[in-house]
Amino acid sequence: MEFRDIITFEQQPVLIIGNEEKIEYKDAKTEEKKSVLKTNLLSDPLYSPILTALKKGPLTVRELEKEYKKLADDPKSDKTLYRYLKFLEKAGLVAPAGQRVTVGKTATEALYSRTAKLFYSSFAYNDLWECSFCNSVLGKVAEILSLREDMPNQDKDCVKKLMTSVDGYIFNEISEFFEKHFEEIAEITKDSNPYEMSRITNVLGTILLLNQPKSYEKPLEECLKA
């Protein structure tokens, strides 16, 4: 059977998802309004198989049903997958990509695509240490570091400044790196699930940071050697 895909959606190279971005929805059973972090959808067992399958390119719901069965322990019907797709579309992770036209038939099938080849789940470093329990965390870290003889009297504000500097460097380096090499990285990670992708990103960030010690040498010296 001969068919032709008519693609009308232009996929982004990289989509950076901040740690505070949420998607609101209504609970099907209780009708209660709820919200979930978009970053959590990347590793959610219900939705991640769809996002992994769509790394291959635009797919129909029927094709997704087959791919989902390969990737997940709990296969889903086409109706359920369509509902999941609509939720991911609302979250900005999936989009209608066009239509599949079969030669000799008038009916068409909708195609769906990831909104980006790469999803980069990243903490918004400017806000990372502004959480409700951050002062407690930073204060305890400062106290623990002060137990070392070469790091006396550490201050939580100094630790906060250091970590913000480090997180900011990693965020900018990985964002720029992914933007520049998205084609190659997308190919290398085409079989990676969201959890593995998260670990890859963490390792990359650490190595890129260690590769440029001068980027954190000064704030490290100002804080820990004070």
Can you walk through the features of this model?
This protein is an alpha+beta fold. The protein has two domains: 3-121, Arc Repressor Mutant, subunit A, CATH 1.10.10; 124-224. It contains nine helices and seven strands. The chain has helices at residues 38-41, 48-53, 61-71, 78-90, 134-145, 156-180, 182-188, 194-210, 214-224; strands spanning 3-7, 12-18, 22-26, 33-37, 94-102, 108-114, 116-122. The strands form three sheets. Strands 1-5-6 form a three-stranded antiparallel β-sheet. The protein has a two-stranded parallel sheet with strand order 2-7. The longest helix has 25 residues, at 156-180. The relative contact order is 0.15. The model has no long low-confidence stretch (mean pLDDT 87).
As for the CATH topology of the largest domain, it is Arc Repressor Mutant, subunit A
CATH class of the largest domain, anyone?
Mainly Alpha
Number of domains: 2
Which strand order spans the largest sheet, edge to edge or round the barrel? 1-5-6
Radius of gyration: 22 Å
Sheet/helix structural class:
alpha+beta
* Average pLDDT metric: 87
Q: Regions with pLDDT < 50 over 5+ consecutive residues?
A: none
Task: Report the helical percentage.
Answer: 40-55%
Total count of strands? 7
